[in-house]
From TrEMBL:
Residues 46-70 are annotated as: Disordered. It comes from Stachybotrys elegans. It holds the Pfam family MIX23. This is Caffeine-induced death protein 2. Belongs to the MIX23 family. It comes from the Eukaryota. GO terms for cellular component: mitochondrial intermembrane space. The lineage of its organism: Eukaryota, Fungi, Dikarya, Ascomycota, Pezizomycotina.
Amino acid sequence: MADPYAQPHLTPQFCFSTRTLRDFLRLSRSTIDDSITQNLNALVTPARSGFDPTSTTQRASRPPSRQVDPQSCQAFQNRVLFPSWQARTEVLNYCGVVATSPDPDDPDATLREAEALRDRERVVDERLDPYSARFFPREARTETLAALVRQERRVEDIIRARTWGAVRERCGGDLPSAWEDAIKRWKAKD
């Protein structure tokens, strides 16, 4: 069974280092969600009841579905899947707060202010150069971070829906149809 990828120490620098943020999310997702089938297969113990020699006398057109033991599945969800999702949610929430907070340490703030001042002073004659009105101001790093957090939240929703579909298919039982309901139920137990 895979172990959840540990949540990093959260600081604004962690969030503003978009590569580090993306690496954390990528590693966490690859450890748990991208390999959900392998993780669930690891929970199946086919030889628990012993080998049945009659199982090889006929070729089955389709192997029976390999349901995971409900207790093993529940343990996987409680100890690995949901804590991993929770860690990623906390990181995205924290970075979302950082993205909406003022950034007094922004190294490009003075450069952006100078560009904005030059842009106000610029005289544009679009008859001479129709492209001269184009000006691409630098984005504040909080705006870049906010866009990244929004994008990663959408990715997270897609990945969790796919993962939860695989868990429901293999584990069966009394599982909610939506991953949001499952994680609410898990949080309520804590």
